[in-house]
Amino acid sequence: MQIQQETLEWLLSGDPSIRWQIKRDILEQGPDEFLIERNLIPHEGWGKQLLSHQDPSGTWGGGLYSPKWISTTYTMLVLRRLGLPQDVIPAQLGCKQLLEGGFYEPDGGINFSVSYQYSETCITGMVLSILAHFHYPDSRVHRLADHLLTQQMPDGGWNCRSFKGDTHSSFHTTISALEGLLAYQITYPENQKIITSARNRAHEFLLKHKLYRSHRTGEIVDQRMTRFPFPPRWYYDVLRALDYFQAAEAEKDERFRDAIQLLIKKQNKNHIWPAYRGPSGRVYFDIEQAGKPSRFNTLRALRVLKWWNNTHNAGSSLDLDIRREDQNNSY
What we know:
By secondary structure, this protein is mainly α. The protein has one domain: Glycosyltransferase (Alpha/alpha barrel). The protein has helices at 5-12, 16-26, 31-38, 45-52, 72-82, 89-102, 121-133, 140-151, 171-187, 192-208, 238-247, 257-265, 295-310; strands at 103-104, 109-110, 273-274, 293-294. Helix 2 (16-26) packs parallel to helix 13, helix 8 packs antiparallel against helix 9 and helix 11 crosses helix 13. The longest helix has 17 residues, at 171-187. The two termini are 21 Å apart.
């Protein structure tokens, strides 16, 4: 996969949260190089800005799950995606608030609502991804993973509305559960076997739908899945799913082809992807401006395509060129 030098220089001129991931995932530099950049996140740019909004109690926005998108949950999700180092004290305080304020003893999940008598599966997945990423030292983290395993549906995915009778898994809930379980498995590899089995069943659910199509009609389930806001919040989209699969080092499968082709078509010139407008709600600041070139989308897209072209267990018939047929679009 060839990346133009000017594109690479543009990426490396961005926030340290971009630079460290480019050096690790695209340039394949070692920890001595990329950790220098990663350790700057609490002190510069987007990471420093988000940390500056933390309340004295350790929360953000005065709440655990709301107001969207400035609450503790959603701020911590962004910090996780930026790659904030695990031992940063404000992050550990945020983890403590999420677990102390949301752990629901009756079923072992996360429940931030006083009106529900059960944990919310999507939120449990998101919080597990945060606690596992930041290596929060509490045995209840294991119970969150166990809770997700009990909530997996017969079709392989998850749905936070299963308590209301829904029988088909939700793309949104499934990707949150998968991200949580992957982060948990990376941090606690001793529980690998049962987690891998559950994740593989969920992979099959998404692949059956080619990541964004109805398995019955082949139609796109929701056009919003073909747009890639960053951060994605709780919403599912094709790039979020593909970035999960590359992080999971998933094996190549013909059923990824449609989503990969969609991703390639979304680029502008010089292998740069645009930013998309995110869901409405309060934010501390816009990480990137909708309609403008997006370093985060470009980073994510490039590492997805690198994974796709490098996966070892499929023949060249599945390889796709990063270049679009039409390269006339401008930034």
